Amino acid sequence: MKVAVPIWKDRVSPVFDVATKLIIIDTYGNKELRRFEINIDVGELHKKCRLIDELGIDCIICGAISRSFLERLNGLGIRTIYGISGKVDKVINAYLNNRTFEFTMPGYHIAKGGYKRKWKKKRHTKMQGNCRRRR
Q: What is the pTM of this model?
């Protein structure tokens, strides 16, 4: 299985859409077989998707990601675990031990298929209710 992590310095890139480098890890079970780095500074998102697909990536672990990029990757059958931050080595080790939830960014929670943003509803209903009362 090939796992990719977009990097910025020695950390998971905060936003996958603008990342320029990927670390690709070949794994077997919970063991890392080899690791290499590749430049993905190809411009537009559809070109990045094509490159990722050509590399045979099965799973991507990343920070934030735009909805359009996520939907394109999902359409290619690539599992995406997003909302992750931390040092690359620690995140990869956690992934191999099924513990990526330890590196979840604030505001994210575990959902089916990866990590999803938990949007908070605005709590202005009380004030709006008072403004709309008939006198």
A: 0.79
